[in-house]
Amino acid sequence: MSRLVADRLTFLRGGRRLLDEVSATFGAGGLTGLIGPNGAGKTTLLRCLAGLVLPQQGQVRLDGRALADWPARARARQLAYLPQADTVHWRLSVADLVMLGRLPHRQGRSGPGPEDHEAVAEALAATDCADLAARPVDTLSGGERARVLLARALAGKPAILLADEPTAGLDPYHQLEVMERLQWLAQSGTTVLVVLHDLSAAVRFCGCLVLLDRGRVVAAGNPDEVTAAPNLETVFRVEAARGQLPEGPYLLPRRRILDGAAD
Predict the structure, then answer these.
(1) Long-range pairs for 8-17 at CB < 8 Å and ≥24 separation?
(2) What would the mean pLDDT of 39-44 be, rounded to a whole number?
(3) Rounded mean pLDDT of 107-114?
(4) How many domains in the chain?
(5) What is the CATH number of the domain that holds 71?
(6) Which terminus, N or C, of the chain has the lesser number of Cβ atoms within 10 Å?
(7) Domain carrying residue 178
(8) Which whole number is the average pLDDT over 8-22?
(9) CB neighbours (10 Å) of residue 139?
(10) pLDDT over 70, % of the chain
(11) Quick check: is 141 in a domain?
């Protein structure tokens, strides 16, 4: 069964059409990269899929049921959303912030139990944040905070993870670590949809890509086909070098295209 379906989503804001009849299907398991230039509609699509905004037309379905019909707690147990830059408004420790990811699984006002503490420890270890557990969140660097927020999402053990640029602001080591973790989650059965601007990471780690431009799906499917030269030249206005390493393929944008000619 398809876990998450976007069916002809149209979203308008201020008279501008941010999504224009976008349809896409995300099955159980798998790492899908959502790519496209700035303003293509990637974040808007992710927010629609998370149920944070409602499209003016079309519908999002989770396991065959309209997302809007799911009770909030049940939906939160199934689906986690990691925004681009999340602001923490309270002076919490890292461990307490990550524990918030367990709220949908707790009953009533009961405190965290052994299962919750185990899930938090696993999430902290998975994001290389265990040594930060006692630190106040407002003392972290931007990269450290990004990893902690990913840990909060992972602590809920969601069946579906929607992540908006989770590697932004991270150093190369932690960029690779996050992408490897997302790939492992997908291989373990979690449906992962991630917005990426790094095309090399997209073709290396993702099993499927969806290319958006001006609110429309230009191509979807095999990463090599989606990032074929005509799409890169038309949508991104770049030429790219490709190669293959033992770890996987890479794609390096190397030249801008201006007025129909390479610069």
Answers:
(1) 8/57, 8/58, 8/59, 9/45, 9/48, 9/55, 9/57, 9/58, 9/59, 9/60, 10/55, 10/56, 10/57, 10/58, 11/41, 11/44, 11/48, 11/53, 11/55, 11/56, 11/215, 12/56, 17/215
(2) 96
(3) 78
(4) 1
(5) 3.40.50.300
(6) N
(7) 2-89+158-262
(8) 94
(9) 11
(10) 95
(11) no
